[in-house]
Amino acid sequence: MDFIKNLNTEAKVAIGLLIAEKMFSLIVMDEPGYKTGREALDCCWKWLEGEKD
C-alpha cells in the first residue's frame, strides 16, 4: 500500500469515495438513513470535482 503515499490528495479522496460507494451499494434503499448517506456521498463527489454550494 506504499503507492498510496505517492498519490495526491484528490486521488486519495477518490479512492476513499470509491470504496465508500462499493460499500454503500450493499445497503438496501429501504434502510433508514439511505437517503442521508446518498446525499453525503454525492456532496463528497461534488466537493472533489470542485463544485461550490
User: So what's the overall shape?
Assistant: flat
From the N-terminal CA to the C-terminal CA, the straight-line distance is 34 Å
The parts where pLDDT drops under 50 for at least 5 residues are none
| Quaternary structure | single chain
Describe the structure.
This protein has 53 residues and is mainly α. The protein is 60% helix and 0% strand. The protein contains two helices and no strands. The mean pLDDT is 91.
What structural keywords apply?
53 residues; 60% helix; flat
Short structural summary:
This protein is an all-alpha fold and 53 residues long. It has 2 helices and no strands.
List the helices and strands and how they pair.
Blueprint: H1 9-24, H2 34-49
Helix pairs in contact: 1-2
